[in-house]
Specification:
The chain is mostly helical and 178 residues long. It is built from 9 helices and no strands. Helix 1 crosses helix 2. The chain starts with 19 loop residues before the first helix and ends with a helix.
Length: 178
């Protein structure tokens, strides 16, 4: 009768990492030579590990690992938000430079509602006031009236924004606002 095979238990191995700056400094200290090559790298890393000059990586576990991932997601989202804000500002500067003279901030409800019409200034100037006011009232119930609409239309009529490529400009704005 054959004995069951027993596998040896795996030893827990400790992982260390060697920072490139520490490796570069140690290379020059070893032989005072500015030459750097891969053969020398292996020797220097082995020496650093033997001397205990390399730190152990801190790998959080449990809730702390989740927090680390959440912070990374937050950083990505913050970066993406900044990119989109910059692109909207760029779009406004190219196609509707006078928009921010009427609305102080393009991110307020009423400004976003007006931008969601996806109209360039020369097209906005032709839309009736009542239609614009009705569209604006969907987002902002008070604080905005015909005065603001007339200011916007007057600014749009004297806008020097780009008129060429209007269909793709509208598509770009639609993508930025969604």
């Amino acid at each position: 009768m054959a004995k069951p095979c027993s596998l040896p238990k795996r030893e827990a191995r400790k992982v260390r990492y060697c920072e490139s700056t520490a490796r570069e400094k140690s290379k020059e200290l070893d032989d005072n030579s500015p030459s750097k090559n891969d053969i020398k790298d292996a020797k220097v890393i082995a020496q650093l590990v033997k001397d205990g000059d390399t730190p152990y990586p801190h790998l959080p576990q449990g809730v702390y690992a989740e927090l680390r991932e959440a912070m990374e997601i937050r950083d990505h989202l913050t970066t993406d938000l900044c990119v989109v804000q910059a692109r909207v500002h760029n779009w406004l500067e190219r196609y509707f430079p006078v928009f921010l003279t009427v609305f102080k901030d393009w991110e307020c409800k009423s400004a976003v509602q007006m931008l969601s019409l996806y109209l360039l200034p020369h097209e906005l100037a032709c839309v009736p006031d009542e239609t614009l006011l009705k569209h604006l009232r969907e987002a902002a119930k008070r604080g905005l009236g015909l005065g603001r609409i007339k200011m916007l239309k007057a600014a749009a009529s004297r806008s020097v924004g780009i008129r060429d490529g209007s269909e793709l400009a509208k598509m770009e704005l639609k993508l930025l606002l969604t």
